[in-house]
Amino acid sequence: MSFSTGDSVLDSTLTDWLRWDQNPESKSFIQKLVESNNVDELRNRLLKRMEFGTAGLRAKMGAGNSMMNDLTIIQTSQGLAMYLVSSSPHVIQKGVMIGFDARHNSQRFAQLAAIAFLQKNIPVYLFSQICPTPFVPYATVKLGCVCGIMVTASHNPKEDNGYKVYWENGAQIISPHDKGISKSITENQEPWPEAWKTDSLDSNPLLKQPFEEIKSSYFQELQKICFFKELNPSSPLKFTYTAMHGVGYQFAVSAFEAFHFKPFTPVLEQIVPDPEFPTVKFPNPEEGKSALDYAMKTADENHSMVILANDPDADRLAVAEKQPSGEWHVFTGNELGALFGWWLWFTFKKANPTETGADVYMFASTVSSKILHSMSKKEGFNYEETLTGFKWMGNRSHTVIQEKKRVVFAFEEAIGFMCGSMVLDKDGVSAVAVCAEMATYLYHNNLTIMKQLDKIYEMYGYHVSNNSYFICHHPPTIKSLFDNLRNYEGSGKYPSSCGPYEIKHVRDLTAGYDSSQPDGKPILPTSKSSQMITFSFVNGCVLTMRTSGTEPKIKYYSEYVAEPDSGKSKKEIEDELADIVQHFIDRFLQPEKYNLIARTS
After folding, report:
1. What is the rounded distance in angstroms from the CA atom of residue 127 to the CA atom of residue 113?
2. Residue 14: pLDDT above 80?
3. Above 60 in pLDDT, residue 581?
4. The pLDDT of residue 260 is above 70
5. DSSP3 helix / strand / coil % (the chain, rounded to 5)
6. The Alpha-D-phosphohexomutase alpha/beta/alpha domain covers which part of the protein (predicted)?
7. Which of 7, 99, 311, 440 is the most exposed place for a label (fewest CB within 10 A)?
8. Which residues contact 149 (CB under 8 A, 6 or more apart)?
């Protein structure tokens, strides 16, 4: 097909696409754009390439370089294969691990990725069926692979998919690997000769299918963090579970069996993996009650007190408990972080009564609650804060473990939990079992999950959070909003107050500034590729605003910590924090000025 837009770069890119793409659907789509002379759409799809970052890739599925499709998966895998050959030559002996979820095209994308590595004589361990995301980092380490790949878009809308990369330590990649892989992708865009021949996979001697082996090993090892095998089978507590139309059901069943629980009650409408997610507006249990309607109905009908919910790739866990009023309380990620932190320290001490905690570590991301820090000061274990994302906690955990120390827990407020160090990433499957055991123990001792949370706050201080987000689809607007705070009202400085609330310190991890440090430089790593500013108020409140790496969101996280002897009630703290957040929204975010869309649930 001959076609000229007058833009030589577009014409060349278009020619390459039509020559390289062998998927009839995506190739036909681009051809129709050519026939209708839709130059703007061609530019958007072909000249804007997905950026490979520390989260790998995540984007809408469709035709073009800016989207997830057969050709971009092939290019990404070829680039990663060449990067591994050059940076880790032992990949030829050790191989790579590949898994996939139940989304549209996930299995095909995994197969196309496998073909790329096999063409370079790299052994491939490819799961034969859908799996939860944490199985990939677990298998990567267990099998001694150099790299792990999970095809998933986690809790994103049904139109999206992704390509998540783990290093040989079982943690998500961090710099400089992301930059090296990205460069290699641009250098290996033309599909190799066998790139599309997925029918050759079964006969390739370098391809192995380790699903059953890994599943058996995972659930056997999971029992190491089960501490009440005798109590669990006799528990009268009833659990309801939902897989949110994702992969989690069969693995949650196995987790319950590993901990010797009676079977839970599943949400029947959401058991079977379905990439259309027909019963939920957003397949994200983090959205709270709106995402758990079916689970609450099932629980009510079966007299269940506790709901456990995985997201579609089962690396996150949401928990709800029925209150005496009959209402359901959906615990925030920070509340669950407090509960898991208490539980994993309690069970560690049960198993190791003579140890002090000097060699024990817990981690949380910088936008998460500081409750673990408060615990560590009283209990004597080590607490560290990392940048947002489990890639940082996973890699830091690996370093600590190499130093012969123990990592017992890590969490982020977005309902991501790492219980123990079996998987150096968030793991919703292990969290299902650990949470069920914790709840069983509490109910056996005439407590509830909510009552225990109150006890934790009474012991370590109230840690009250108020988190949400606004949606903005226009990156220049987001940049303008953040830049305005760096030059607040034309002052050339950051704001010194937010309404009546005085700001003590400002940390900007985009610009590399921290007023609390003697040299004005932050301790945490900085990055100009994302926006993140933290305000510390004189009254002790901390508020962080940041852009999401995977969604068009401006997120904000706030926490007010009051010591146990502060004399302030939880209600007083909540009211003051709500007032601070409202001033922050009105004065700093200015949603009307920037046309921001508020969270609807």
Report:
1. 12
2. yes
3. yes
4. yes
5. 40, 20, 40
6. 50-190, 217-322, 359-444
7. 7
8. 77, 80, 96, 97, 98, 99, 110, 113, 136, 163, 164, 165, 166
Length of the chain: 601
- Give me 482's structure tokens: 């953040």
**Each residue of 49-65: pLDDT tens digit?**
998 987 799 999 999 99
Task: Tell me how far apart the alpha carbons of residues 492 and 471 are, in angstroms, rounded to a whole number.
Answer: 27
Q: What is the SS3 assignment for 506?
A: strand
Alpha helix ranges (H) inside 449-586: 449-460, 475-486, 570-584
The pair of three-digit structure tokens given for residue 545, joined into one six-digit string: 């605003």
Are 374 and 564 in contact by the 8 Å Cβ rule? The answer is no
CA dist., res. 218 & res. 134, Å (int)? 10
Q: Is 160 helix (H, G, I), strand (E, B) or coil?
A: strand
Cα 583 from Cα 588, distance rounded (Å): 8
Chain centre to alpha carbon of residue 369: 16
Helix (H) or strand (E) holding 133: none
Could you tell me the pTM of the whole model? 0.93
Residues contacting 72, CB < 8 A, separation 6+: 50, 57, 65
* Domains, in order of start, for the chain: 49-209 (3.40.120.10), 215-460 (3.40.120.10), 464-598 (3.30.310.50)
* Residues annotated catalytic, as ranges: 154
The per-residue DSSP string of 93-126 comes to HH-EEEEE-SSTTHHHHHHHHHHHHHHTT--EEE
* Nearest in space to 112 (alpha carbons), one of 66, 146, 163: 163
- Percent of the chain topping pLDDT 90: 92
Tell the residue number behind the tokens 């999401």, with chain if given: 548
In 10 A of CB 223, how many CB atoms? 13
CA atoms within 13 A on the CB side of 298: 22
Question: Average model confidence (pLDDT) for the chain?
Answer: 95
